[in-house]
Amino acid sequence: MVTRDRQRRVTITDVARHAQVSTTAVSKVLRNAGGVSEAMRAKVRAAIDDLGYRPHNAARAMRGRTFTIGVLLPHIRNPFFADIIDGLTDEISASGYQAIMVQSGGRDPAAERRASDALVDRQVDGVFWVAPACARAQLEQLADDTPLVVLGRHDRSSRYDCVLDDDEVGAELAVEHLIGLGHRRVAHITDSLRSRSTALLQTIRAATYERVMTEHGLAEHIAVASTSYTEEGGYEGTRELLSRDPRPTAIFAGSDQAAFGALAAVHEAGLTVPGDISVAGYDNARVTGLAHIALTSVDQDGALMGRTAGRLLLERIGGRTAAVRFSVTPTLVTRRSTAPPDPRLEGRTPDW
């Protein structure tokens, strides 16, 4: 019987020969190292594409590098996370890195631990952790062995890098916008995890909401529904807020996902947005701009955060040890979900 020999795997030597450069130059391009001109980098990349070269991860691991980055997400349902991952992969792809994504459980410390351990067991070269809920000590323990970049936390550490949004500025933009439109009964949907740590973004957003309301003399109208930053949490939180008497005329949801749930609950109650209730979210995920949603939202540029996290992680893998803290300044994007309240809903005499 005639058997067919398995096709020989393309090696780094083949790439070097095809590009007419040294194997050292090819290695530097694969590692995104310095000392290589843009012209040579382009030649090597062209040779890699021509030959279909794929680095052998097992061999890489034996040399101390797997060219994989572990990404820990609380869950995969949040559309804002897609913006972050797009930015991350755009940044790391030129270096030959691939992202391995794992759900961390988000609200379950034991699940977070299992997820991070699973990535370490797979010998990833670095970890990008989005919105961890665990204690800082656990993050530092991970960072002692594996380069780590954390997104969304406000605590400081010398052992890992942080990419974050100025959540106080963002929450203030949203609440000031609603009050500026004339709303007095502005409610807020937060995540129940906020009580665990002042470093968590939900804690900062909720505290800022209460501060701004108080500064405007509206402390008596502070109304917080503590659920979760999910569609289910936004839905349940809004149902609870609508049952209050008087009900709010505006809702600031701490995330777009919660805002989506709020929109569903308002619609189910037979009310309109923004005619009866204005709704604002946080994240400005791409879907918020769709015509049938048109959600006012705080933009924290998820793609920029992802790209920055990718760059910082590659630097960490490359040997940088000094901690970096990168903060994004948010902006408010206003759409059709917010408008001035009906004067009758606010207990005032109409101007007309």
Give me the secondary-structure topology.
Layout: H1 12-19, H2 23-30, H3 38-51, H4 57-62, E1 68-73, H5 79-92, E2 98-103, H6 109-121, E3 126-130, H7 136-143, E4 148-151, E5 161-165, H8 167-180, E6 186-191, H9 201-215, E7 223-227, H10 231-242, E8 250-253, H11 256-268, E9 278-283, E10 296-299, H12 302-317, E11 325-328, E12 331-333
Parallel strand pairs: 1-2, 1-3, 3-4, 4-5, 5-11, 6-7, 6-8, 8-9, 9-10
Antiparallel strand pairs: 10-12
Please provide a written account of the structure.
With 352 residues, this protein is of the alpha/beta class. The protein has 12 helices and 12 strands. The chain has helices at residues 12-19, 23-30, 38-51, 57-62, 79-92, 109-121, 136-143, 167-180, 201-215, 231-242, 256-268, 302-317, and strands at 68-73, 98-103, 126-130, 148-151, 161-165, 186-191, 223-227, 250-253, 278-283, 296-299, 325-328, 331-333. The chain is elongated, with a radius of gyration of 24 Å. It starts with 11 loop residues before the first helix and ends in a 19-residue tail after the last strand. Residues 1-6, 58-63 and 348-352 have low confidence and may be disordered.
Brief descriptors of the model:
single chain; alpha/beta; 6-stranded parallel beta sheet; 12 strands; disordered C terminus
Biggest beta-sheet profile:
6 strands, parallel
Q: What structural class should be given to the helix and strand makeup?
A: alpha/beta
| Arithmetic mean pLDDT | 88
- The sequence of SSEs as H and E is HHHHEHEHEHEEHEHEHEHEEHEE
Shape: elongated
> What's the helical proportion of residues?
40-55%
The proportion of strand residues reads: 15-25%
Which stretches are low in confidence, meaning pLDDT under 50 for 5 or more residues running? 1-6, 58-63, 348-352
How far is the first residue's CA from the last residue's CA?
94 Å
